[in-house]
Amino acid sequence: MCFGDIGRWFNSSYFDHLRRYKKMEIDKNKKQKNLERVFIAPNLRPFLCLTIEEDTDVEDEFEIESDDGLQRKRVQQTIHGRVFTTEIVHEQTIDEFDSMREESKITYVLDLGTRLIWNEGDGYIVTKEGFKTIDEIREDLNFIEGVK
User: Fold this and answer.
1) CA distance 58 to 110
2) Cα–Cα distances in Å, from 113 out to 54, 55, 108, 147?
3) Rounded to two decimals, what is the model's pTM?
4) What is the domain partition of the chain in residue ranges?
5) DSSP category for residue 122
6) 37-76, pLDDT tens digit by residue?
């Protein structure tokens, strides 16, 4: 689409439904339906978590192997203060002549208070989700109770 088409696009029927909503008015004399506030049901599955502090010091290493022995993964993780490093070596036997080896190293500098979640087979991971402790959830629930 070029700039000359933008005017035509904005005037297209795609935006007709939006224009209709602008013209709608609510009859304030009409009795409205009873509405209530609802919330998305929380996931109550517990996770193991490590919260990053200035003095956090962790060195962890583990290895897992598939049942058939064709795949092996070694994970080494270190956390010193805010610096979190994960080294992974993944080996896979394709057949009696071919195999594959993949190595990776990832280093993060984390903010204090970041929560790392323990994931079986991967070790500590950084997630986008906002994990909370039971006490923090209680505080949220106490606050929500006052909202009607």
Assistant:
1) 14
2) 9, 12, 14, 28
3) 0.64
4) 49-136
5) T
6) 777 887 888 899 999 999 999 999 999 999 998 999 999 9
